[in-house]
Amino acid sequence: MTAQERAKKLLAKAKHLRELAQAEYEKADLSEEKSGIPLGQPILVGHHSEKAHRRAIERANRHMRKAVELTKEADELEARARNVRVATDDDDALIKAKAKLAELEALREKIKHENAAARRRGETPPHERFTLNNLAARIRNARKRVEQLEAIAERKSKPNMTKTYGGVDVVWAYADNRLRIYFPEKVRDMTILKRNGWRWSPKCGCWQRQLTNAAIYSASMVLKHLGYIGDDGNGN
Question: Which of these three, 156, 178, 213, is where a domain ends?
């Protein structure tokens, strides 16, 4: 399965969970039309309606909790899908992410406008508060996605940077989003590399990881372990 296929599968599952969450939100509706309880009416202690009223509130709370859980699961799946997409270095990802953010922000403004118009007419707003809260969370995630892709795009434009430690070249391959280690000889202990997330690239003839702060730190620790960097941080 390709990275794009994995991302598509994750997003499809996230979409399904959001549909389930929306269904739970709707079941949590305590409007008079759905529950039969007048809007704003307190529980009438001792009245024959007390038990039914308490059951309705508990039922609504149960559905709301489930809706929140499903929404969180969907958010996590979408985050995983974003990470997969970043790994594919999709040049169109930033354009798509910005379009998605704009779409969500426009939807929020539309909902706010419709609610405000309903209030001016003295009517009940057509969109519940949880709808806006859910949308706000999606907008935050979309904005983070755009910022992440913008940072990657900026980094891609930078030329490679190389630092040498004891004959070992460590290359910041910004365009490929990889940190690469070129050893002058066969590594005697490959276990330390594999255990720290480094993978051999036959194409590049080096060990590499995705370019992150963690990878940079790991490179220094691995080279120190293999004896290419001394305790002073300089190459031997």
Answer: 156
Tell me, yes or no, whether 105 and 76 share the same domain: yes
Burial, 5: exposed, middle or buried (Cβ in 10 Å; 0-12, 13-18, 19+)? exposed
Q: What is the pLDDT of residues 28-38, one digit of tens each?
A: 766 656 656 65
CA-to-CA dists, residue 97 to 33, 83, 194, 203, angstroms: 39, 13, 34, 31
**Chain centre to alpha carbon of residue 195:** 26
What is the percent of the chain with per-residue pLDDT over 70, rounded to a whole number? Answer: 84
Question: Both tokens of residue 236?
Answer: 């031997």
Which residue bears the tokens 């983070």? 144
The structure's pTM equals 0.43
Q: Are 219 and 179 in contact (CB under 8 A)?
A: yes
Give residue 220's domain range.
Answer: 161-225
Write out pLDDT tens, residues 90-128.
Answer: 567 788 899 999 999 999 999 999 999 999 999 889 988
Does the pLDDT value for residue 3 go beyond 80? no
User: Own/partner pairs for 77-83, CB < 8 Å, 24+ apart?
Assistant: 77/10, 77/11, 77/13, 77/14, 77/17, 78/10, 78/11, 78/14, 78/141, 79/141, 80/10, 81/6, 81/7, 81/8, 81/10, 81/11, 81/14, 82/7, 82/145, 82/148
- Of 53 and 103, the structure prediction assigns the larger pLDDT to 103
C-alpha 138: how far from chain center: 10
Domain count along the chain: 2
Boundary of a domain, candidates 132, 156, 180: 156
